[in-house]
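Ticket #4471: structure export looks truncated?
Reporter: QA, pipeline team
Priority: medium

Steps to reproduce: submit the single chain below to the structure queue and open the exported record.
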Amino acid sequence: MTPPLSDAELVQRLLLAALLGGLLGVERELRQKSAGLRTNILIAIGSALFTLMSYELADSAGADPGRVAAQIVTGVGFLGAGAIMRTDSGIHGLTTAATIWVNAAVGVAAGGGEYHLAFIATGITLGVLLLLHPIEGMLDRRFGDRFAQKPDGPGRGGPSY
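Actual output as written to the record:
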C-alpha cells in the first residue's frame, strides 16, 4: 500500500490540470468556440480528480485504477459528441471535440503525477491548434471544397432522413 498523497501534492496536481486545461481553453475561447476557457478547465480538473480518486480507491480496495481512466475516456466521448454539429453546410465541432478528448488525457496525466507528459501533450496540442489552422485555411483557398467535410444527405450519395 502506497502512502497517501499530501494535501500539497493533491492541490499541485489539480492546479496543474486547471492551468493546462486553461491554456487549451484560451485558444478555444479566442476562436469563439462553444467549449472555451471554463469548460476546458473543468474537464481537466474533473479528469485529474477522477484519476486521483481511482488511485485512492484502488489502493484501499485492491482494485485496478485503470478502470476509472477507461471510464473517463467514455464519459468525455459523450461531451465531445455534444460539440459536434451536422448541418447542411458541413460538419462542425470536430476540432473542439478532439480538444475536449485530449484535454481529458492531459488531466489524467496531471492527476497521475505525470507532469512532464502533461506539459508535452499540452504544448503539442497548442502547436496543432495554433499552427495548423492557417495551413488549413491556405489549403482551403488553394484547393477549394475538395478537402471540406460534407454530410451525407439528398444529392450527396447518402441517406435522407
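Status: closed, not a bug. The export was complete when the record was re-opened. Leaving a note from the reviewer for reference: The chain has one domain: 7-145.
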